[in-house]
Design a protein that fits this description.
Elements lengths: L2 E3 L9 H10 L1 E7 L10 H12 L1 H7 L4 E6 L14 H9 L4 E8 L5 H16 L4 E4 L5 H15 L6 E4 L6 H7 L2 E5 L8 H11 L4 E4 L11 H11 L4 H17 L28
Parallel strand pairs: 1-2, 2-3, 3-4, 4-5, 5-6, 6-7, 7-8
Helix pairs in contact: 4-5, 8-9, 9-10
Bound molecules: zinc ion.
Length: 284
Amino acid sequence: MRIFDPHIHMTSRTTDDYEAMHAAGVRAVVEPAFWLGQPRTSPESFYDYFDALLGWEPYRAAQFGIQHFCTIALNPKEANDPRCRPVLDELPRYLAKDRVVAVGEIGYDSMTPEEDEALALQLRLAIEHELPALVHTPHRDKVTGTRRTLDVVRESGIAPELVVLDHLNELTVGMVLDSGCWAGFSVYPRTKMSEDRMVTILQEHGAERMLVNSAADWGRSDPLKTRKTADAMLAAGFDDDTVDRVLWRNPVAFYGQSGRLDLDEPKPDEESSFQGNSVRRGGE
Ligand SMILES: [Zn+2]
């Protein structure tokens, strides 16, 4: 089974996770830029983070046989912090890079005027750079937040097929599919979405424009939730082709719209290093 996790924060994960993901069938991931759990105090720390998403992390992933791509943006939460706003001016420099396959994560956190502005501006950047957009939906007041997000997406003029609204649930999936956007689901151990609920949603809404991710990060999360969802689909009677469509061909189709998804197998090279550093330890 081949799996593409379209939303996972590998910066927060260990080499054990990479090994287990590869054993489970994961061959490609997209890591969206997001917030790190505590506020950043200057734009420069974003640039180091973006550079790591484009340098060290793809190197690390390749050592475990996994292709790593990323999305770049000022995340919704930190869009509210005036110290971080200058990041918006530097984004075009990053959006030109080869492994950047979308603008994201953008969207709403608390639905403030600052978030409105950052969301509209970054959707404009996606249009200018001819990139897809990964749009996070707020955890609180999800239905209202999703409806408002869809309004802003519509007003921006971006083609709906270039947009995924993520972290959806039973209450928001219908309106997102009706809009022509892609529907993303983050399958978590305790909250948001479970693999069984995901199976029911797929039974009710079909596999078209559906993306399943683990959204694993520094919080309670599980980087194998993509595989566990695939197994739950098979147990519920879905065929191999539909599982492959949801867990591989859909994310390839969505991010492939960037024109930058080069899926040649990475060749793990124990001898290689990244700027003098490697994942090896000592004299192994
Ligand atoms: Zn995320």
